Target: General secretion pathway protein C
Amino acid sequence: MARAERQARLDARKRDRYYDNPESLSELVSVAAVRSADGQLAGYRVSPGPKGEEFQALGFRPGDVVTEVNGLSLSDPSNALVLYQMLKSASEANFVIQRGGSPMNLTVQVGGDRP
Model:
């Protein structure tokens, strides 16, 4: 179970811009698959793109490994399309990440006034 929790907010218009132009996500974040010792997909390591301040404002840090989003395990590549469709209209994204070897929950509210 994750020990620490962090909350952040993403403006719904920004989210919509990323969906309208998915290539623009590379300005926010770069991702690389992380494999377990037995070669199975374990999650994705995230690093800031050129807009690193937005990356960190969402609560991510360079080297975080995202293992789950909204209850969907990222160890199953078939969840990618489901996740993409789910997040397009979600008001919240709950990430389970590994940071420095410790599990952590990161919640990003989309729209609204409070993180």
In short: Residues 79-89 form the longest helix (11 residues). The chain has four helices and seven strands. The two ends are 22 Å apart (CA to CA). Strands lie at 4-10, 29-35, 41-48, 65-69, 72-73, 92-99, 102-110.
